[in-house]
Amino acid sequence: MSNEAVSRLKKDFIFNLALKGQREDGRAFDEMRDIKLETNVIDKAEGSAKVYYGDTQVIVGIKLQVGTPFPDSADKGVIITSMELNPIASPDFEAGPPRPKAIEMARVVDRGIRESGAIDLNKLCITEGEEVWMVFIDVHVLNDSGNLLDAASLGAIAALMTATIPAEREGRGEDTKMPIREMPVSLTFVNVGGEYFIDASNNEESICDTKVTIVSNQDGSICAMQKSGAGSLSEEKFLKAVEKSCEIGAKIREEYLLNI
Known about the structure:
It holds the Pfam family RNase_PH. This protein is α+β, with helices and mostly antiparallel strands. It contains five helices and twelve strands. Strand 1 and strand 2 (about 45-55) form a beta hairpin. The radius of gyration is 19 Å and the shape is elongated. It starts with a helix and ends with a helix. The model has no long low-confidence stretch (mean pLDDT about 95).
C-alpha cells in the first residue's frame, strides 16, 4: 500500500474519532499527556532542562558569553535561540543545516521568551554600547512524538531559571543567577475535523489543517502567538483557545516552574 493511501486512511480514522468526541490515545480534546521536567542535566552548560511530553523528549542547554550589543539596544543583553531536529528523534528529520521547521519553532520559542520579558535584559549589560551578556538557548530534540514546540518552550524557560551568569570565569566579578522576571508557557492547538486538540500527537499534527500556538504570562496576558496552516478558526474558538491557554499555562507553572 502506498504512503499516500496510508496517510488517507490515517486521516479518515482520526477525523472519524474526532466526530465521536474521541482521540486515538483516549484523551479528551483538552487533555495533556503526562509531563516530566528535569533540570541541571548538562554539567557543562550554564543552565539546562530535559522535558518529556508523553514520549516526546527535548533537552535545552543555556550558554553565556560576553559580546557586543545591537546598536538599537546598546544597554540590553542578547538572546539567540536555535533548535536541532536530530535524525535520531524521527525518521522525518535529516542531518545538515537547520530546516525551515526547526527555524520556525526556534523563532516561536525565542519570541515567547523575548516578548514576555522573561529575562531582564538590562541587567545583562556590562558596559553600555560595548559589552553585554549573550544568552544562547540551544534546543535539541531527542524523540518526536508530537508537540515539540510546547515541550521546547517549557524546556527553555526552565533551563533559563536554572542558569548562572559565569561572571567569575570571564573576569567580570561574581557569578549571579539569571535575572528572570516572567515565566511564559505556550499551548498549541491543532484543528482536526473542526475540533481543536491540545498537545497533539504526531498523527494528529500530520493531518491537521491549522495550528495555533498561544504563549501566556503569569498574569494571564498573552505575549506571543503563532498560526500556521491554511485553515481558519472562528472568533468563538479563538477566544476559547486563549482562555484554555491561560488555564493550562497556570497549572504547568504551578506544578513545574514554581518549584525550580
